[in-house]
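Final report, closing paragraph on structural work. Over the funding period we assembled a curated collection of sequence-structure pairs, and we close with a single example.
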Amino acid sequence: MGLTVPHEGAVMVRLQSYAETGVNCRLSIPFPFTQAHRTSYLGLTQRELDPEPEGTVSVDVPAFGTAAVIFRLAPSKDA
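Its predicted structure, as stored:
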């Protein structure tokens, strides 16, 4: 659905499903991150996700529904 920056040091990935049943999505981003939180489309009610060893996270998206994940980015080595 889209990407946004809800605040400094974070990226939000928004998902939308048109499937008639719920789906599980595995997400990865090209930036190192320290935490990932499952949240609503608006960024409310956050719940921490456990990353997989390869750096992906899994999120369930309900049938005809939306979901989002906020990734807290690791500090830049240049900062």
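The mean pLDDT is 91. Residues 28 and 54 are 9 Å apart (CA to CA). We thank the funder for supporting this effort.
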